[in-house]
Design goal:
This protein is of the alpha/beta class.
């Protein structure tokens, strides 16, 4: 290694780059300060894409620089040459794998990959390998009858295809812990530890992957078991409900941003931030739009969601930051690390070092998906279109700007400023109202998801509901279902709306738009 330097690499899971972009393709600096700081000190490859749809293929590509994944599993046996083996002789390795086993035992003696008890682990593994092998090697007609392997990480034979709660439960079983934040926090703490030799710190973080349960602070909230608007494994046609699911995704992206900020703070506290090479990327994205039959499947319509991913690289001692619109691909990451560290890669790679003067011209991109190869352009327009839709629906102030069209101007307004009448015939219930009476702002959770029923409401009523927290409008939402004289509602409350202790929560029914809006206070 000609230019040894500490290396910190984080691969987030299910993370489209559009989630942190505005409609012009720029970073939402105010909403995502962690990524903004990293971009200010490094290079944001704004048009980066993954070349593989599935994690079991995309992770090996990231760690080998080779796009040869057919018939292979994400293990050191199938991928004997990786970034881990490249640096094993000269580096201390701190590798946090979650769903892969790419670091061989000789290089990662103290593995941080979680394990089940022996009997359970091997029994489940044997069953899973049989199913995975069938998908890899059987003709399509036979493979279609096998349980799916693209909705969870393990225990494929137990996965239902039409039950979101099943998928969430299987996912939690895979991680072997109900709290994905614990290994992330441990990793962030470890990267600040002093090391006598250069260290490679690698983390595959299972966020912002579903289930969406974290606020930007890392606190939890009582998220619904199935995301609004879901029609597993894709999305229904109700745009408002799917937007609420997208809001949950963006909120968890905020937690990923907090992880980046905490990581930078840990390195700065140790005095090693400037000298450290940092790579932050994702294995693939996800689609959260109405009418999409599969949230993870890449098609010509979903490349902007699934293929376009974040890629930030900070070189040792390099700054200030810059945006590079070269079509970077995940196969470029290992060659780039090797180039920066001054080490020859002793195997052929399919990528290129991204900081060299001459890079191959790329006029088209390809991503391998479960339905074959999708070919698309290199200008990044697909991701920008997704980001522009997000800004149109949420505004420019992050995930908590979501309202039905024509009501965003009400957010933050004091109810005292409005002409409000009271209708004692209208009743609004709040599920678990007592959770608002003893809010701990620094506690493990906040009551940020509110839901309940309004009655009487007639079929076809197009009124909306404003959620009042401590005298101000914190959210505006539509009814999700109307029937039998009552209507269900749900909304996400921004954490800054809460105060310590008892919080006053109320609901307004709003009819009309613009100057014709009428506000009606409902009794609890």
């Amino acid at each position: 290694v000609g230019r040894p330097a500490p290396v910190v690499m984080v691969v987030f899971d299910e993370f489209p780059v559009a989630s942190i972009m505005d409609g012009d393709g720029n970073l939402e600096v105010g909403t995502y300060p962690g990524f903004a700081r990293l971009a200010a000190d490094g290079t944001w490859f704004r048009n980066a894409v993954t070349v593989q749809q599935q994690t079991e293929h995309s992770l090996p590509v990231i760690l080998t620089g080779k796009n040869s994944t057919a018939g292979k599993l994400p293990t050191a046996g199938d991928y004997p040459f990786t970034l881990f083996t490249l640096l094993a002789d000269a580096y201390e390795l701190d590798v946090q794998e979650t769903v892969s086993d790419l670091c061989p035992a000789y290089a990662c003696e103290n593995t941080t990959r979680p394990t089940l008890p022996f009997v359970d682990r091997w029994g489940s593994l044997a069953d899973d390998l049989w199913i995975v092998s069938g998908h890899l090697f059987l003709p399509n007609d036979f493979a279609d009858d096998l349980p799916p392997i693209d909705t969870t990480w393990s225990n494929f034979s137990g996965v239902g295809t039409d039950n979101d709660q099943d998928i969430i439960d299987r996912f939690r079983e895979l991680t072997y812990s109900a709290d994905r934040r614990v290994p992330i926090a441990q990793f962030v703490e470890r990267i600040g530890a002093v090391s006598e030799e250069p260290r490679l710190s690698f983390l595959h973080a299972l966020v912002p992957h579903v289930p969406w349960t974290y606020l930007p602070s890392g606190q939890t909230y009582s998220a619904p078991a199935a995301a609004p608007g879901s029609a597993s494994p894709g999305w229904g046609n109700d745009e408002w409900l799917v937007d609420q699911a997208y809001q949950m995704h963006l909120t968890q992206v905020g937690y990923a941003d907090t992880v980046v900020a905490d990581m930078i703070a840990s390195l700065e506290k140790a005095g090693t931030y400037d000298e450290t090479m940092i790579i932050v990327t994702a294995d693939h994205g996800v689609t959260v739009r109405p009418g999409i039959p599969h949230r993870r499947k890449v098609t010509a319509d979903t490349v902007g969601d699934v293929a376009a991913i974040p890629l930030f690289i900070k070189r040792p001692g390099h700054g200030p930051g810059e945006i590079d619109d070269y079509r970077a691909e995940t196969v470029d990451i290992v060659p780039t690390i090797a180039d920066v560290l001054g080490i020859d890669v002793p195997w052929d790679t399919d990528g290129t070092a991204l900081f060299v003067d001459e890079r191959p011209e790329r006029t088209e991109s390809r991503i391998e998906g479960s339905d074959g190869t999708v070919v698309f352009g290199t200008d990044g327009s697909e991701a920008r279109a997704i980001a522009a839709r997000k800004i149109d629906h949420f505004g420019s102030h992050g995930p908590f700007g979501l309202t039905p069209p024509g009501y965003r101007d009400l957010l933050g307004l004091a109810v005292d400023e409005l002409d409000v009448r009271t209708d004692d015939d209208l009743v609004a219930t709040v599920l678990d109202r007592s959770s608002f009476a003893a809010v701990d702002l620094d506690g493990p959770s906040l009551p940020a998801w509110i839901s309940g029923v309004v009655r009487p409401i007639d079929e076809g009523d197009d009124a909306v509901v404003a959620v009042i927290v401590n005298g101000r409008i914190a959210a505006v939402t539509r009814f999700s279902e109307i029937g039998g004289g009552e209507a269900e509602y749900a909304a996400m409350i921004p954490p800054e709306a809460f105060i310590e202790g008892d919080n006053l929560v109320g609901l307004l029914l709003i009819r009309g738009v613009g100057d014709d809006r009428q506000f009606v206070r409902m009794r609890p």
